[in-house]
Amino acid sequence: MNDSYRLKTDEKGARIQKMFDGLAANYDLMNRIMTMGQDQRWRRYVVDQAGLKPGCTVLDLAAGTGDIAFEVRRRFDDAAVIAGDFSLGMMAFGTGRKGGDGVHWVACDALALPFADNSFDAVLFGYLLRNVTCIQTALSEIRRVLKPGGKAVCLDTTPPPPGLLRPFIKSYLNHGLPLLGRALGTDPSAYAYLSNSTQHFETAEALADHFLQAEFDGVGFRHFLFKTIAVHWASKQAGGRQHNTSKKDL
Ligand SMILES: C[S@@+](CC[C@H](N)C(=O)[O-])C[C@H]1O[C@@H](n2cnc3c(N)ncnc32)[C@H](O)[C@@H]1O
Q: PROSITE patterns, alphabetically (predicted)?
Protein backbone atom coordinates (compact mmCIF):
# COMPACT_ATOMS: atom_id res chain seq x y z
CA MET A 1 0.00 0.00 0.00
CA ASN A 2 1.29 3.44 -0.98
CA ASP A 3 2.42 5.52 2.06
CA SER A 4 0.25 8.45 0.95
CA TYR A 5 -2.81 6.31 1.78
CA ARG A 6 -1.67 5.78 5.37
CA LEU A 7 -3.25 7.54 8.31
CA LYS A 8 -0.70 9.75 10.13
CA THR A 9 0.42 8.33 13.47
CA ASP A 10 3.59 8.18 15.60
CA GLU A 11 6.76 6.31 14.59
CA LYS A 12 5.92 3.00 16.29
CA GLY A 13 2.37 3.28 14.98
CA ALA A 14 3.60 3.76 11.42
CA ARG A 15 5.66 0.54 11.63
CA ILE A 16 2.73 -1.43 13.08
CA GLN A 17 0.32 -0.02 10.52
CA LYS A 18 2.60 -1.07 7.66
CA MET A 19 3.03 -4.53 9.20
CA PHE A 20 -0.74 -5.12 9.47
CA ASP A 21 -1.34 -3.80 5.95
CA GLY A 22 1.09 -6.54 4.85
CA LEU A 23 -0.52 -9.24 7.02
CA ALA A 24 -4.11 -8.47 6.03
CA ALA A 25 -4.53 -11.15 3.36
CA ASN A 26 -3.52 -13.98 5.72
CA TYR A 27 -4.69 -12.51 9.01
CA ASP A 28 -7.95 -14.40 9.57
CA LEU A 29 -6.54 -17.79 8.58
CA MET A 30 -3.42 -17.20 10.65
CA ASN A 31 -5.52 -16.33 13.70
CA ARG A 32 -7.58 -19.51 13.49
CA ILE A 33 -4.48 -21.70 13.09
CA MET A 34 -2.30 -19.96 15.71
CA THR A 35 -4.96 -20.15 18.40
CA MET A 36 -6.08 -23.68 17.46
CA GLY A 37 -9.53 -22.34 16.67
CA GLN A 38 -10.02 -20.68 20.07
CA ASP A 39 -9.90 -17.04 18.96
CA GLN A 40 -13.57 -16.65 18.08
CA ARG A 41 -14.59 -18.04 21.47
CA TRP A 42 -12.60 -15.28 23.18
CA ARG A 43 -14.18 -12.63 20.95
CA ARG A 44 -17.64 -13.97 21.85
CA TYR A 45 -16.65 -13.68 25.52
CA VAL A 46 -15.61 -10.05 24.88
CA VAL A 47 -19.06 -9.29 23.48
CA ASP A 48 -20.72 -11.16 26.40
CA GLN A 49 -18.93 -8.88 28.87
CA ALA A 50 -20.12 -5.68 27.18
CA GLY A 51 -23.72 -6.07 28.46
CA LEU A 52 -25.12 -4.80 25.16
CA LYS A 53 -28.79 -4.07 24.54
CA PRO A 54 -30.79 -3.74 21.30
CA GLY A 55 -30.14 -0.43 19.56
CA CYS A 56 -26.68 -0.04 21.14
CA THR A 57 -23.83 1.95 19.62
CA VAL A 58 -20.53 0.08 19.72
CA LEU A 59 -16.97 0.83 18.67
CA ASP A 60 -14.76 -2.12 17.72
CA LEU A 61 -11.40 -0.37 18.06
CA ALA A 62 -8.35 -1.84 16.30
CA ALA A 63 -11.00 -3.83 14.50
CA GLY A 64 -8.66 -5.25 11.87
CA THR A 65 -10.84 -7.36 9.59
CA GLY A 66 -13.81 -6.87 11.93
CA ASP A 67 -14.35 -10.16 13.83
CA ILE A 68 -15.62 -8.44 16.99
CA ALA A 69 -17.77 -5.98 15.02
CA PHE A 70 -19.36 -8.89 13.12
CA GLU A 71 -20.10 -10.72 16.37
CA VAL A 72 -21.93 -7.65 17.73
CA ARG A 73 -23.96 -7.36 14.49
CA ARG A 74 -24.74 -11.08 14.61
CA ARG A 75 -26.35 -10.59 18.04
CA PHE A 76 -27.98 -7.18 17.47
CA ASP A 77 -29.03 -6.46 13.93
CA ASP A 78 -30.17 -2.96 14.94
CA ALA A 79 -26.86 -2.05 16.61
CA ALA A 80 -24.79 0.81 15.18
CA VAL A 81 -21.37 -0.81 14.88
CA ILE A 82 -18.29 1.24 14.06
CA ALA A 83 -15.07 -0.59 13.23
CA GLY A 84 -12.04 1.68 13.70
CA ASP A 85 -8.46 0.89 12.76
CA PHE A 86 -5.42 2.68 11.35
CA SER A 87 -4.60 -0.14 8.90
CA LEU A 88 -6.58 0.51 5.76
CA GLY A 89 -5.32 -2.83 4.44
CA MET A 90 -6.92 -4.76 7.32
CA MET A 91 -10.19 -2.85 6.97
CA ALA A 92 -10.24 -3.37 3.20
CA PHE A 93 -10.41 -7.12 3.87
CA GLY A 94 -13.09 -6.58 6.48
CA THR A 95 -15.33 -4.58 4.15
CA GLY A 96 -15.15 -7.44 1.63
CA ARG A 97 -16.29 -10.05 4.17
CA LYS A 98 -19.89 -11.27 4.41
CA GLY A 99 -21.79 -8.60 6.37
CA GLY A 100 -19.03 -6.03 5.82
CA ASP A 101 -21.54 -3.49 4.56
CA GLY A 102 -23.47 -3.68 7.88
CA VAL A 103 -20.53 -2.11 9.72
CA HIS A 104 -19.28 1.51 9.49
CA TRP A 105 -15.53 1.42 8.83
CA VAL A 106 -13.53 4.40 10.11
CA ALA A 107 -9.80 5.03 9.69
CA CYS A 108 -8.57 6.20 13.09
CA ASP A 109 -5.66 6.19 15.51
CA ALA A 110 -6.57 4.84 18.95
CA LEU A 111 -4.34 7.51 20.50
CA ALA A 112 -6.45 10.38 19.08
CA LEU A 113 -9.96 9.14 18.38
CA PRO A 114 -12.08 11.18 15.95
CA PHE A 115 -15.27 10.71 18.00
CA ALA A 116 -17.12 13.05 20.34
CA ASP A 117 -17.11 12.52 24.12
CA ASN A 118 -19.80 10.11 25.44
CA SER A 119 -20.56 8.50 22.05
CA PHE A 120 -20.56 4.72 22.67
CA ASP A 121 -22.32 2.20 24.89
CA ALA A 122 -19.25 0.00 24.58
CA VAL A 123 -15.74 0.12 23.18
CA LEU A 124 -14.36 -3.36 22.47
CA PHE A 125 -10.74 -3.87 21.46
CA GLY A 126 -8.89 -7.03 20.49
CA TYR A 127 -5.07 -6.96 20.54
CA LEU A 128 -4.79 -3.18 20.59
CA LEU A 129 -2.97 -2.28 23.80
CA ARG A 130 0.09 -4.44 23.10
CA ASN A 131 0.65 -2.36 19.98
CA VAL A 132 0.28 1.22 21.21
CA THR A 133 3.05 3.61 22.28
CA CYS A 134 1.12 4.70 25.37
CA ILE A 135 -1.48 2.47 27.04
CA GLN A 136 -2.71 5.34 29.25
CA THR A 137 -3.39 7.61 26.27
CA ALA A 138 -5.34 4.85 24.52
CA LEU A 139 -7.37 4.06 27.67
CA SER A 140 -8.14 7.69 28.36
CA GLU A 141 -9.33 8.15 24.76
CA ILE A 142 -11.51 5.03 25.10
CA ARG A 143 -12.95 6.34 28.37
CA ARG A 144 -13.59 9.76 26.85
CA VAL A 145 -15.71 8.37 23.98
CA LEU A 146 -17.69 6.00 26.23
CA LYS A 147 -21.08 7.13 27.51
CA PRO A 148 -21.35 7.29 31.31
CA GLY A 149 -22.12 3.71 32.35
CA GLY A 150 -20.51 2.40 29.13
CA LYS A 151 -18.18 -0.61 29.08
CA ALA A 152 -14.65 -1.12 27.79
CA VAL A 153 -13.70 -4.73 27.05
CA CYS A 154 -10.18 -5.70 26.05
CA LEU A 155 -8.77 -8.94 24.61
CA ASP A 156 -5.00 -9.38 24.49
CA THR A 157 -2.14 -11.78 24.94
CA THR A 158 -0.25 -11.94 28.24
CA PRO A 159 3.40 -12.91 28.84
CA PRO A 160 4.01 -16.64 29.50
CA PRO A 161 3.19 -17.19 33.19
CA PRO A 162 5.74 -18.75 35.54
CA GLY A 163 5.34 -22.51 35.98
CA LEU A 164 5.82 -25.82 34.25
CA LEU A 165 4.27 -24.73 30.96
CA ARG A 166 6.41 -21.63 30.56
CA PRO A 167 9.25 -23.28 28.53
CA PHE A 168 6.68 -24.84 26.16
CA ILE A 169 4.84 -21.55 25.67
CA LYS A 170 8.12 -19.70 25.06
CA SER A 171 9.22 -22.33 22.59
CA TYR A 172 5.91 -22.03 20.74
CA LEU A 173 6.28 -18.23 20.61
CA ASN A 174 9.95 -18.28 19.60
CA HIS A 175 9.96 -21.24 17.21
CA GLY A 176 6.45 -22.55 16.50
CA LEU A 177 4.98 -19.21 15.42
CA PRO A 178 7.77 -18.32 12.97
CA LEU A 179 7.45 -21.82 11.43
CA LEU A 180 3.70 -21.33 11.01
CA GLY A 181 4.29 -17.88 9.58
CA ARG A 182 6.74 -19.22 7.02
CA ALA A 183 4.34 -22.02 6.08
CA LEU A 184 1.67 -19.39 5.40
CA GLY A 185 4.14 -17.27 3.41
CA THR A 186 3.95 -14.35 5.83
CA ASP A 187 6.71 -11.83 6.59
CA PRO A 188 8.84 -13.48 9.35
CA SER A 189 9.39 -10.13 11.07
CA ALA A 190 5.66 -9.97 11.82
CA TYR A 191 5.91 -13.20 13.83
CA ALA A 192 9.04 -12.02 15.59
CA TYR A 193 7.08 -8.89 16.55
CA LEU A 194 4.09 -10.91 17.81
CA SER A 195 6.36 -13.12 19.89
CA ASN A 196 8.39 -10.21 21.35
CA SER A 197 5.46 -7.95 22.02
CA THR A 198 3.65 -10.79 23.82
CA GLN A 199 6.63 -11.70 25.98
CA HIS A 200 7.25 -8.07 26.96
CA PHE A 201 3.64 -7.00 27.44
CA GLU A 202 1.97 -6.31 30.79
CA THR A 203 0.69 -9.15 32.96
CA ALA A 204 -3.09 -9.25 33.32
CA GLU A 205 -2.76 -7.82 36.85
CA ALA A 206 -0.60 -4.91 35.66
CA LEU A 207 -2.98 -4.22 32.78
CA ALA A 208 -5.88 -4.08 35.25
CA ASP A 209 -3.92 -1.40 37.13
CA HIS A 210 -3.70 0.62 33.90
CA PHE A 211 -7.51 0.60 33.69
CA LEU A 212 -7.73 1.81 37.29
CA GLN A 213 -5.17 4.56 36.62
CA ALA A 214 -7.26 5.65 33.65
CA GLU A 215 -10.16 6.10 36.12
CA PHE A 216 -12.25 3.12 35.07
CA ASP A 217 -14.40 1.35 37.63
CA GLY A 218 -15.49 -2.25 38.10
CA VAL A 219 -12.26 -3.56 36.58
CA GLY A 220 -12.01 -7.33 36.21
CA PHE A 221 -10.34 -9.90 34.03
CA ARG A 222 -10.32 -13.55 33.09
CA HIS A 223 -7.48 -15.65 31.73
CA PHE A 224 -7.75 -18.11 28.87
CA LEU A 225 -5.45 -20.70 27.25
CA PHE A 226 -3.03 -21.49 30.08
CA LYS A 227 -2.96 -17.79 31.10
CA THR A 228 -1.57 -16.66 27.75
CA ILE A 229 -4.70 -14.64 26.88
CA ALA A 230 -6.72 -12.27 29.04
CA VAL A 231 -10.02 -10.45 28.68
CA HIS A 232 -10.38 -7.30 30.81
CA TRP A 233 -13.55 -5.35 31.38
CA ALA A 234 -14.17 -1.98 33.00
CA SER A 235 -16.86 0.70 33.16
CA LYS A 236 -17.00 4.45 32.90
CA GLN A 237 -18.89 5.32 36.04
CA ALA A 238 -22.24 6.99 35.44
CA GLY A 239 -22.56 10.35 37.26
CA GLY A 240 -18.91 10.91 38.22
CA ARG A 241 -16.35 8.50 39.54
CA GLN A 242 -16.91 6.49 42.66
CA HIS A 243 -13.90 5.00 44.33
CA ASN A 244 -14.45 1.39 43.47
CA THR A 245 -10.95 0.19 42.77
CA SER A 246 -11.70 -3.52 42.87
CA LYS A 247 -10.11 -5.76 40.31
CA LYS A 248 -10.89 -9.39 40.13
CA ASP A 249 -9.41 -12.36 38.38
CA LEU A 250 -12.05 -14.99 37.69
C1 LIG B 1 -3.79 -8.20 15.90
S2 LIG B 1 -4.86 -7.09 15.03
C3 LIG B 1 -6.40 -7.35 15.83
C4 LIG B 1 -7.60 -7.20 14.94
C5 LIG B 1 -8.94 -7.56 15.60
N6 LIG B 1 -9.21 -6.71 16.73
C7 LIG B 1 -9.01 -9.00 16.00
O8 LIG B 1 -9.55 -9.30 17.07
O9 LIG B 1 -8.57 -9.85 15.24
C10 LIG B 1 -4.36 -5.55 15.72
C11 LIG B 1 -5.00 -4.38 15.01
O12 LIG B 1 -4.72 -3.21 15.77
C13 LIG B 1 -4.56 -2.14 14.87
N14 LIG B 1 -3.89 -1.07 15.60
C15 LIG B 1 -2.72 -1.14 16.28
N16 LIG B 1 -2.43 0.05 16.82
C17 LIG B 1 -3.44 0.89 16.48
C18 LIG B 1 -3.71 2.26 16.74
N19 LIG B 1 -2.87 3.02 17.44
N20 LIG B 1 -4.85 2.80 16.24
C21 LIG B 1 -5.71 2.05 15.50
N22 LIG B 1 -5.50 0.76 15.22
C23 LIG B 1 -4.38 0.18 15.71
C24 LIG B 1 -3.76 -2.77 13.74
O25 LIG B 1 -3.81 -2.02 12.55
C26 LIG B 1 -4.42 -4.14 13.62
O27 LIG B 1 -5.45 -4.14 12.67
A: SAM_MT_UBIE, UBIE_2
